[in-house]
Each structure stands twice: as C-alpha cells, then as structure tokens.
Amino acid sequence: MSSIPASPKRALLSAIPIAVILFFLPLLVAPYQVTLLAYGLIFAIAALGFNLLLGYTGLLSFGHSAYFGLGAYAVAFIVKYLEITSMEVFLLGGVLASAAVAALFGFLCVRYTRIFFGILTLALSQVLWSLAFKFYWVTGGTDGLRVPTPSLMGVRNPAGEDKMIFLAHRYYYYVLVIFLVGASVMWVIVHSPFGKALQAIRDNETRAEFVGVQVWRYRWVAFLVSGIYTGLAGTLWVPLNGLTTPDILHWTFSGKIVFFTVLGGFQTFTGPIIGGVVYNYLETYAVGHTVYWQMVLGVVLVLLVLVLPAGIAGTANRLILKLRREA
Amino acid sequence: MDTFLIHLLNALLYASVLFLIAGGLSLIYGVMRIVNLAHGNVYAVGAYATAWSVGRVLGGGQPSPALYLLLPVGAVAAAALGAVIEPTLLRPLYKRAEEYQLLITFGLLLILEDLLRFIWGPYPLSASSLFEALGSLTIGESVYPSYNLVVIVVGAIAAAALWAFIYKTKFGVILRATSQNMRMASALGVNVKRIYLQAFTLGCFMAGLGGAIIVPQQGAVLGMGVDALILAFVVVVIGGLGSLEGALLGALMVGVVREFGIAFFPEVELAVLYFMAAVVLLIRPAGLFGHV
Amino acid sequence: MSLLETKSLTKYFGDTHAVDHVDFSVAQGELLALIGSNGAGKTTLVNLISGLLRPDSGTILFQGADVTVMSVHDRIRAGIARSFQLVTVFDQLDMLDNVCLAIFARDGKTRRLLSLANSDHAVSEEALGVLREFGKANLLAGGLAQGERKLLDVAIAYALRPKLLFLDEPTSGVSTREKAPIMDIITSIVRSGKITAVIIEHDMDVVFRYSDRIVVMHEGAILAEGTPDEIRRNEQVTTTLLGTRLEAHEHARA
C-alpha cells in the first residue's frame, strides 16, 4: 500500500498546504460552494472509515449506510425526544449509536469474507432501513426528521443570522477541524502496528493467523473503528442537510460510499478523501443539470472500473512514480 | 379458512415472481460467480417492455385474448439486454477483483434506472387491462383475481421447465459442469465464453419474465427493480447462492413470510425478511442448499 | 524428553485416513525431515500440530504440556511456528514490514492503534537483524523472486522466535541453484541452538544432505524413522517408497 515509506514529517508537509487552502477557502468562494465542500469533507470522513475495511483489511462492506444513517438518526432523535441542540451532544450520541451497532454487526460479520461479508452487511443494514421506513411515528417514515441549526461548543447561532452563512462559516470550520483530526488519527491507525496487522490479514488471512494475529478480533476492531468514522460523518451531515430520511440507510447509499472510495482510489490513503470531495461535486453538478443524474454517475462508475481502476489518487501516484523514474 | 387460502395464494403469487428473479440471479452467480446488482433493473425492463407493448397494441380498444401473447415481450427484451451487457461490460472483468465486478453492476443499476425513465418517462406504466379482462373467481365468500392464478401457474411452469433444462439437456450438463469447475470445463473443451453469455442471457430472461407476468397485476414503476433486487437477495441468501432448488425454497419462504407479515405484523415485515437472511447467513453461510 | 510428541494422533477426511494413529516425536535441537509421497499425510500432520486442523483423536504434547485443542494464537505463544507449502508472505507490505509484523504480533504490540509502526526502533532493528541473517533487501514483498519469497516466508516464522519451526517444502518451486543457500540458512539457525526445525521435503538430495533424522510417512502412518544412513539402508523404504528416486539419487552421487 505504501510504496513510499510513511514518515509523519513528510505526511505533514504534504497535508499542511491542503489544510491551509481548506482554511482560507471560505474567504474566497461563495457560501454555497463552501457548504458543498463541507459535504465533501463529511463524505471523506465516511470514506476514510469505510476504506479501513476495504483498502486495509480487504473487506467490502455493502452496508455502511447503516452507520451513516445511525449517526444522522441519533441526532434527529436527540432533537426530537431530548430537545437538545448542542453539536457536542450530537457527536456523542451519533458516535455512541454507530459504535454500538457496529460492534454488534461487526461481531456477526467478521467471520466472513468476500461476497458473503458484503451480502451480510447489506442484509443487516437493510433491517435498519426497513425499521426507519416502517416505524414512521418514530422516524417520520419517508418524510424523515428535521434537525435545526445546532449550537457549537455552547455558542448559539445569533438570532436572525442566515442559516447559509452559519453553515458556510462556523459550521464549515467545525467540520474542517473534525475532518483534519479524524484524517490524522486514521493516518496513524493505518501506519500503526495494528494497521500493519490489518494489511497482513488483507494480504493473507491464514498467514496472519500463523504469526499470531487473531484475525476475527482484529477485523472486529477495524469494523468498529470503520463504523464509528462513518457514523461520525452521518452525525456531521445531518445539521448541514437539515433533514434525515431513510434514503441514507438504504443499501444504494452504501453503494455510493463504495463508489466514492473507489473513485478516489482505495489503495491509497488519500484516495477516499479525494473521492468523497469529488463525488459530492459530481453528484451535485449532475443533479443540478439533468434529471438523468443517476445515468451520469453510472457512466462515470462504469468508465472508472474499466479505464481507471486505481481511482484518481492511485492513477496520480502511478503517474508521479513513472515521471520520477523517467526523470 | 377462505382468508387463509387467499393469503396462501398471494404467497404463491409472490413466490412465483420472486423465484423467477432470484433464480436468474442465482443461475448467473452459480455459473459466473458474479452478483449482478443490476438484476432487479433487468426485471423492471421486463415489466416496462411488456406494459409498453400491451399499451401500443391495445390503443384504446378492448383487450383480446391475443394480447396475452405479448407477455413474453418483456422476457425477450430482458434477455436481449443481457446478451448485450455480458460481452461488453462484464467480460473484461472476469479476471479482476470481486469489488470491481460488483461496482460495475452497481454502475449498471444507476444507468438502467435512468434509462427506464428516459425511454418510458417518470410515470408508472400499466397493463391492467390484461389483469381485469380475466375477471375473478369466488373462493368461498371471497373473490380472487383469476390473473393471479395465471402468474402462479406460469411461475410453476417456468420452474419445471428450468429444472428440465438444467438437468435433462446437454446444455444443462455443460452449464452445471462449468459452474462446478470453470477451469476443468474449459480444459475439456467447453467454450466458457459462450456458456457465460448463455447463462447471463438466460438469467436475464428469467428476471424479465418475472417482470412481464407481474406487470398486469402491479404496473411498472421506477424503483421497482431496486426493491425487487433486495428481496431476491434475501431469497438467494436463504436458499444458497448458485442453487436453483434453494431459490425455489427461498422464494416460497419469503413469499409466505411477506404475505402473512403484511397481514399480521406490517411494521416489521421487511425487517423480519432481512433478519431471516442474516440469520441463515450466520448459521449456514452457503445458504440452505448451497455449497461453499 | 522430546520437545514435541504426538500420541495416536488421528485425522480422517471422510474415508481417507490422512493421519492414522501417529506417534511422532521431535527431539530438542534437531533438524528433522518429514518425507513421503504425495498424500502420505505429512502436511496434514503439520496442520494438526500447528493448529490449522483439529485432530479427530489423539493428543499433542509440546514440552510436556497438552496443546491438542489450543488455539493457533496460543500455540504460537507456546513456541510452535510454521511456514506454508505455497509461499505466503504479505505481498503489499515491504520485506521489513513483513518481519516487523511478526515481531509486533509476537510481542503483543499489534494491539497498538495509535502509535506509528516505524517509530518503534527496537522492532525495526530486530527485523533488520533477522533480514541480515537471511540476506536483506527492502522491497515490496510481491516483487521478489521465488527463492527470496521462500526465505522471507521462513524469516517471518523465525522472527516469532519459536522453539519449534515447521517448514513445509522450503525449497519447492525454487531453482536448484537457490536451494543450497536456503538450506544453509535454515541449518545455521538450527545449529546456533536457537530452534528445532522440521522440514517437509521432496528433494531427496536436500533431505539426505541436511537432516539429522528422517521420518518417513506412508498412507497416513509412519513407515520408518532414523538417521539418513539408516533410512538409506532401510529396504522397506527404498523399495516401497523411495524406489527409483533414491536410486537416481545414488546414481547422481556416484
């Protein structure tokens, strides 16, 4: 996975310019563009979590909508039943809910690999979808549940301030900080001894077992971390979207998470981040310009698989390596 | 007693259509080891094509018995679609990782979903004249639509024909041999390329037939494919990926649970189905009839 | 006392008696070769002892303790390690990481999520030391030549610091020229007194040249055991099993 040895200094050096750009961008572009970027960063967090399983552990989940949706619905329930609108409480609730369910589902799923793992994760996530869909008096059914603008670190949004301004400024920075922290922690995880053990499991499960890695246990922890990241993303997503519906629990949303991870390139660390951001622009653009946006996404996906299987980051890496070699 | 009988008939109705969809999905997986996420959309294509052709021929007139001959149109359209998809999109991927095979069929799902919208528009298509023309039967004190019995019978005939096809013909022998050991079959001179094309086309034909026979009863709507796929998944997971007997048993189980679920515990009916699938996977990952 | 001892160890696959009431023992510090035709039960025996398979009956004693139903993980802790017939290294990790991983796992450090693997210099140093013993390189393991992969496979198992190491065909699929260096390294680590090794091997040249003792299996049972000389003189072995192969070997030597 890492043909370039991982050094924190090097990673920081390449991350800092990007962080700086992300920091100053709200001063340069329209608020709407900033909210789009916020969506993209949130998807990137989900994809980072998802890719701990796909890219590093070799498990393709088709049920990550479950954790994204749990994060979002946990927030909606906190608003509806506890009447609390503190973002920190949201985060706590969202993370706890997704962690609890990921722990349970993961326990059931990690004994399987390949297509069986994919279908089992899918079936379990669909249980949640159907519950959100059918128990409409709790979940609002297909109408979903609304979530108001939250207070950030105890600071309420001043009355009368435009919601878009709030989302494009304070909320964007809130998301950005969580994204940067989340990405850094994930970087450490995949370069930790634990991360190496996951990659060993991915490369050869039996051999990993015979160096003493307890395969199921490590997969379970990876599943848990993965679910928490995706749940965290769902939690951050819902105040931005203002509404949660069963759509984000449906298996086709899991398909989108797979899509943007592969779009960015699941064999690289940065791929899922790029994929999340690019996918969000792609989808927003397609939805804005044609009713046939699914067709656009489908064609992109098919071309991606046929022509650019390494994704954006993977292809870029290869090009850079090639250029270096020629130089 | 009557209501029980009606529930049972409805369960069989579901099971017939589900068997056709899931049987096709399972056949494709059995031979090619590909889970086709766009399979539900193929079923939708069958429904749309039949509904459209019935509408064209009927115009505003009265339905005639000859119209029933249009039912296979959907199946043929779906088979044709399959015959195009396999060599163009799937064939380049057989040597690639499973993730890519799944992803390309997911891309196909998105494309087909919008292709239906593009060709037939966003509104539902109906072929209910075929459904209404047959009238209904009286069962005890209840009435039951005769057309539903047609669907059940077609489902049963399709199951029998498929069984005969797979177990009694030379093609069936080759198909089964390929599904058990592709390399061996290839070494013995089987044209694997052609078998894959035929299996995929046949699988799509089954799904299309399912869509074609149910459309007079339910109509064709966008999104029907995605919903059907997930139920077909439940069926094949219960029965075992790649097993036709399993698909039949799974379809019957899902048909019964759905029908009685809708009647007695509507809120958790779907959840129970997915839960069933998960439990079977956990206990017997290869399904009730499958082999790992 | 033997380092390892099996008592009446049995494993059937349906009607096939893969391992049939086998009493097998390994003495401390020896390099033992397990030989026999394909299907004789050698790999199954190693699979039972290493924990990949569970026996139908019989017991396995390691340093006098019963390990018959112990998990793979616990067996490794106890000191039993193995390599595989088909080379199994972690293709997308580089060579150093392959060995580091074994050390991390051995020391229980793979539980660490929040520290960087390559900042643990003690582990990197130790891994480098192991690789130096095996002839080092720092490449993606997937790009190595077959002989190097075989060696890496052995190095991974060796880095676990086992007391008893099973090597399933360490020189299969390797050119004749590469066989000697691999066996020289294996022999030198056994001679250094650090480990005891059992190799499954088909190349009789290798077997007779390097092993201290040979155990011959046939149809799930032990046919004969003894020093290379004893085995070479054992008519039962030469006629029923080694046959032409051994003759060819003798011719080659003559």
Please tell me about this protein's structure.
The complex is a heterotrimer of chains A (327), B (292) and C (254). Helix content of chain A is 76%, strand content 1%. With 327 residues, chain A is mainly alpha-helical. Chain A has a two-stranded antiparallel sheet. The N terminus of chain A is likely disordered. Chain B is built from 12 helices and 2 strands; from the N terminus they run αααααββααααααα. In chain B, α2 runs parallel beside α4 and α2 crosses α10. The mean pLDDT of chain B is 84. Chain C contains 9 helices and 11 strands. In chain C, the strands form 2 sheets. Chain C has a 6-stranded mixed β-sheet, sandwiched between helices. In chain C, strands 1, 2, 3, 5 and 6 form a 5-stranded antiparallel β-sheet that branches. In chain C, a hairpin with a 2-residue loop joins β5 and β6. Chain C is globular, with a radius of gyration of 19 Å. At the A-C interface, α7, α8, α9 and α10 of A face α2 and α3 of C.
- The oligomeric status of these chains comes to heterotrimer
Order of helices and strands of chain A: HHHHHHEHHHHEHHHH
Helix amount of chain B, in percent?
over 70%
- Please describe the biggest sheet of chain B, giving its number of strands, its sense, and whether it closes into a barrel: 2 strands, antiparallel
Helical region count of chain B?
Answer: 12
* Largest sheet data of chain A: 2 strands, antiparallel
Taking Cα atoms only, what radius of gyration of chain A do you get, to the nearest Å?
19 Å
Radius of gyration of chain B: 19 Å
- The 3D shape of chain A can be described as globular
* CATH fold topology of chain B: ABC transporter involved in vitamin B12 uptake, BtuC
- The average pLDDT score of chain B comes to 84
Strand order across the biggest sheet of chain A? 1-2
Segments of chain B where pLDDT lies below 50 for 5+ residues?
Answer: none
Count of folded domains of chain A? 1
Going by CATH, the architecture of chain B would be: Orthogonal Bundle
Largest interface: A-B, 43 and 45 residues
